[in-house]
């Protein structure tokens, strides 16, 4: 017996003579299932979960789960999956290599080439020091994933980066901002700022709308220009 949907059959009706395959629930390593009732649900629709977030979810799965997901969720040859499994155990393995393969395959399957390209571009946009040219659409694509604030154009233009780092909430104090800047850990639009005298210029405001500030690799703030 199996279930199927047709115009003359209500969902859930049993159809005599029909056969189908069953598939076990996809569980996390802690035994909980994927689903809209769970925290961190993985939505297939980009309306509920952007291609970037979708990609990042699978890029972040633990090593203990990635091989199982590669087997279940992708169409990769089993030989390639086994090779990735062996690589994880070897010295010198580059972290998240298997996860990257998983994220690319699943994102491309669900969101097609354009969605994968969007996810990769947004991922690169969040990496300080990246050479990818930022645009307003790419930065807005990650807006839900980083803190943000809105400041008037006149408030931002010619403001020192040290002052902006504090007023935007990126850093608690000017002294901390100056120290981080001297250590090479302060970025604006992915470009490291080396001068304490750096002030925001019109050309720094991406498409006249936004700025992306970073303190180190993880702490970021999106500044929307009102």
UniProtKB/TrEMBL annotation:
Catalysed reaction equations from the record: tRNA(Tyr) + L-tyrosine + ATP = L-tyrosyl-tRNA(Tyr) + AMP + diphosphate + H(+)
InterPro entries for the chain: aa-tRNA-synth_Ic, S4_RNA-bd_sf, SYY-like_C, Tyr-tRNA-ligase, Tyr-tRNA-ligase_bac-type
EC supergroup of this enzyme: ligase
Gene3D superfamilies, A to Z: RNA-binding S4 domain, Tyrosyl-Transfer RNA Synthetase
Domain of life of the organism encoding this protein: Eukaryota
Gene Ontology CC annotations of this record: chloroplast stroma; cytosol; mitochondrion
Domain Tyrosine--tRNA ligase SYY-like C-terminal: 139-223
Pfam families with a match to the protein in the record: SYY_C-terminal, tRNA-synt_1b
Family the entry assigns: Belongs to the class-I aminoacyl-tRNA synthetase family.
Name of this protein: tyrosine--tRNA ligase
């Amino acid at each position: 017996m199996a279930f199927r949907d047709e115009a003359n059959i209500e969902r859930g009706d049993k159809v005599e003579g029909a056969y189908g395959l069953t598939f076990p629930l996809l569980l996390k390593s802690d035994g909980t299932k994927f689903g809209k009732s769970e925290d961190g649900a993985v939505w297939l629709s980009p309306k509920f979960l952007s291609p970037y977030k979708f990609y990042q979810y699978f890029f972040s799965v633990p090593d203990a789960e990635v091989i199982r997901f590669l087997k279940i969720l992708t169409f990769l040859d089993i030989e390639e999956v086994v090779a990735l499994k062996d690589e994880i155990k070897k010295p010198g393995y580059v972290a998240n290599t298997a996860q990257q393969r998983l994220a690319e395959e699943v994102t491309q399957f669900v969101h097609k080439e354009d969605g994968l390209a969007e996810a990769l571009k947004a991922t690169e946009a969040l990496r300080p020091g990246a050479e990818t040219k930022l645009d307003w659409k790419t930065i807005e694509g990650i807006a839900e994933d980083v803190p943000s604030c809105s400041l008037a154009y006149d408030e931002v233009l010619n403001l020192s980066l040290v002052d902006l780092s504090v007023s935007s909430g990126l850093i608690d104090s000017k002294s901390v901002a100056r120290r981080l800047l001297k250590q090479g850990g302060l970025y604006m639009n992915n470009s490291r700022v080396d001068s304490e005298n750096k002030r925001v210029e019109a050309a720094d405001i991406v498409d006249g709308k936004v700025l992306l500030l970073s303190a180190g690799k993880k702490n970021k703030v999106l500044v929307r220009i009102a």
